[in-house]
């Protein structure tokens, strides 16, 4: 674990090379698929193994050469970004290309696969040993190639985001790990960040309400937003309503946890956690899971904007479109929480000493 952590702390140095390797791989695969090779991940397949990606069902002779060109060009751009950066028009262009690549790979091309993996990861781990209940032959019927490809693309997008962020910081002559520069202030005050975070938490908690209400209504037998025949079909499909209800409950529980990003109990363990009461909450304990949910829920919401098959009944797609606002709100709240608690950088030493000794922004100070 220590070796992995040390390796991760050097992400500004290796992320550009990793993004270049990813892009080169897909560039070569694009040429392979264009030449008639098997395994084109967006080819039309049976409905049971299709995804909700914007590229699903694409023609290989159209999309494969685009994948090849973008991948090979991206490999060159990523390698250029690993070199010493200087301010100028070229650096601005590289930053724009980098963020465009990251945005497309993380937010536009994927579908609900990532949030499904996050929500059902404990069950998938169990299924790997016990088998998948129902008609599926195994986990392979859930994580088939079209979905696995979207997961790989998502990870590649994260690599591009890290590479672009590191390059941008080098251009600004800032610390590659925290983004601070000598002579600059430490950004918005903690009170300002707390105020931004509160508004973002409101958005993150209200956005999933339509989804939660409709799924609970269906579980109780009310055809809210669907026809009675469609509700009857869901009732007759084993586990369908239970999964929807479980997702609604998980969403509501996540909303409660989201309040920790602006609440005192998100910085100091409350009394009811008796074995940690009064001690400081590690920022990563909130930042890491909240970041994962925020970046995986947005492509799931965007998917419903270009999935016409579900537009016959509003409750099947409209509540999920609000996931876009949910992800953005949660992301803003998470960034505000991180900036409020990050403290002095271990690499450059810039920044104020954080709440390692005193915590409680907006509340009476508590020594921990």
The number of helical elements comes to 13
Oligomer: single chain
General shape: flat
Helix percent band: 55-70%
- The rounded Rg comes to 23 Å
Give the beta-strand count.
2
Distance between the termini: 27 Å
Largest sheet, described in full?
2 strands, antiparallel
Q: Estimate the mean pLDDT confidence.
A: 87
Provide the succession of SSEs: HHHHHHHHHHHHHEE
Spans of at least 5 consecutive residues with low confidence: 355-368
Strand content: under 5%
Strands ordered across the widest β-sheet: 1-2
- The SS-based structural class is mainly alpha
Walk me through the topology.
Elements: H1 2-9, H2 11-34, H3 60-81, H4 89-108, H5 113-130, H6 145-171, H7 190-206, H8 209-219, H9 228-236, H10 240-258, H11 283-303, H12 314-321, H13 323-341, E1 358-359, E2 366-367
Antiparallel strand pairs: 1-2
Helix pairs in contact: 2-3, 2-6, 3-4, 4-6, 5-11, 7-13, 8-10, 8-12, 11-13
């Amino acid at each position: 674990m220590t070796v992995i952590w040390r390796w991760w702390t050097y992400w500004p140095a290796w992320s550009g090379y990793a993004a270049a390797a990813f892009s080169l791989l897909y560039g070569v695969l694009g040429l392979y698929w264009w030449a008639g090779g098997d395994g084109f991940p967006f080819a039309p397949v049976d409905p049971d193994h299709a995804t909700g990606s914007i590229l699903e069902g694409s023609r290989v002779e159209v999309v494969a050469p685009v994948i090849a060109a973008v991948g090979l060009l991206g490999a060159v751009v990523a390698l250029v970004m690993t070199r010493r950066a200087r301010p100028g028009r070229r650096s601005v262009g590289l930053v724009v290309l980098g963020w465009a690549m990251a945005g497309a790979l993380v937010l536009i091309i994927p579908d609900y696969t990532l949030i499904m993996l996050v929500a059902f990861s404990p069950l998938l781990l169990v299924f790997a040993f016990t088998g998948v209940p129902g008609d599926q032959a195994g986990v392979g019927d859930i994580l088939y190639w079209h979905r696995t490809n979207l997961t790989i693309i998502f990870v590649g997008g994260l690599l591009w985001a890290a590479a672009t962020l590191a390059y941008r910081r080098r251009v600004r002559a800032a610390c590659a790990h925290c983004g601070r520069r000598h002579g600059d202030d430490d950004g918005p005050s903690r009170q300002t960040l707390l105020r931004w975070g509160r508004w973002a938490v409101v958005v993150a908690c209200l956005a999933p309400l339509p989804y939660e209400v409709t799924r609970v209504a269906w579980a109780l037998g009310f055809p809210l937003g669907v026809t009675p025949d469609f509700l009857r079909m869901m009732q007759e499909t084993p586990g369908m309503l239970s999964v929807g209800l479980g997702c609604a409950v998980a969403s509501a529980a996540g909303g409660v946890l989201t309040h920790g990003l602006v609440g005192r109990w998100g910085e100091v363990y409350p009394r009811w956690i008796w074995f940690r009461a009064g001690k400081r909450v590690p920022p990563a304990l909130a930042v890491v899971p909240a970041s994962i949910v925020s970046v995986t829920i947005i492509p799931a919401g965007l998917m419903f904007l270009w999935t016409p098959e579900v537009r016959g009944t509003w409750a099947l797609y409209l509540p999920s479109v609000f996931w876009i606002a949910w992800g953005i709100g949660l992301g803003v709240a998470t960034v505000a929480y991180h900036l409020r608690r990050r403290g002095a950088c271990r690499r450059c030493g810039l920044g104020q000493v954080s709440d390692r000794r005193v915590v409680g922004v907006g509340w009476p100070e508590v020594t921990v």
